[in-house]
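1st attempt posting a full record on here, be nice pls
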Amino acid sequence: MAEQNEFLKVRLEKLKALKEKGINPYPSAAFEITHHSKDVLEKHQGLQAGEHREDEKVSMAGRLMTIRDMGKSCFAHVQDAQGRIQVYVRKDSVGEKAYEVFKLLDLGDIIGIKGFPFKTKTGEVSVHVQSFEVLSKSLHPLPEKWHGLTDVEARYRNRYVDLIVNEDVRKTFETRSRVVAAIRQYLDKNSFLEVETPMMHPIPGGAAAKPFVTHHNALDMQLFLRIAPELYLKRLLVGGFERVYEINRNFRNEGISIKHNPEFTMLEAYQAYGNNDSVMALTEQLLSEAAKAAGQGNKIMVGETELDFTPPFKRLPLLNALKEIGGIDYDSVSVDDLKKRIKTTDAQVKHMDSLSKAELAYLLFGELVEGKLIQPTFITDFPVEVSPLAKARVDKPELTERFELFCLGREIANGFSELNDPVDQRRRFEKQVELRKAGDEEGMYLDEDFILALSYGMPPAGGVGIGIDRLLMLLSNSPSIRDVILFPLMRPRDDEEKMIFE
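the predicted structure (as tokens):
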């Protein structure tokens, strides 16, 4: 901290010196940009060493990342949104007074430059600066060895610094934007309507999760941050929209891990007159489009593993997967056998005695099978007890027309044929309420308004939810969900750095 205060003291003195020279370090006037670094670098790679293009003027802006003082001239690197480019500042080009101003600049300062392209004798495309402006004075030094920090959480806490100094991080979030745009484009092209539904719900629903609770003062009512938009999107199917989707935040008051953040981005899409198979096909296409948008085609490398997103994906019923991969034959084991097996795993299970055989099998699937599903795989036919919003199979009513998509041991998507029978839906909700009374904080509430909506008639439909953050973890080869969320939730630090300007 003492070292940081010394750096701050020096920069504050330079700030004062700039002002004394009549320079406003934080001007309000706009600076016109005609070129970015990438444009200049690509266009002028063909220049000969030592060749100048004084006839071509460029106006650029960015952050000073390096400065090499050579007495009467300086070489520096300026970083903008597209990369870095070297600039050459010479006293006799910008003038003595301006050069004195440049000598007061530090790494991290933001400047605007005007000049012309040239290639140095060593072959580096650069910009010969004829004039410059100070656009923002940086008072905090950039880290010299950002990649070597032992406190890796500093990257997440100070994401703005991470973005400045780490090109790979910027590329990850550029990839994220392209992927989301590709998903939107595909859905829009296929007649899906993008909608917005409430973030604050009077009753949490759409998933089994513990909600965040808030309060609306004017209405004096308790509200919940949404855990899923599902029940509102299906209300729109009742209202006559046939294909709807939403990409937005969900909030779940649960643990934090490399796969979980309390707020996260989901895509949910619903297709009237479709079913489980319809949205499985949709999911395959969406992931294929996402992989292409990430710049890798249908086959991507994650570490040393090649993942193939070429449709169709493998499909495997849950109980078959439990037998083939987990070594448990559901039909031949007892409830007690399943309980004993669960106790040998790391699963933390409350109220095990209240769980059915199917629920116990589902828990074991999570412990023994999920992590071994590497290539994109649809797990299908989930038990009705763990699928309160999915339509039951006609031939096997104990199972539902539901799937989850797994890849590299992670759940990426969840979808099913939507339950549109209001009588059955009420019965399912009531079972969830019983679970809550037994102590299950993730059990669903009984949503009377949703039952009323279904009573008006909802067309048969398929729906799917895709975790955008987990998908981006795969497509950007990121080990943690925090690597693909710009500002992940962090616990405040006791030694939070304070900037004291006096």
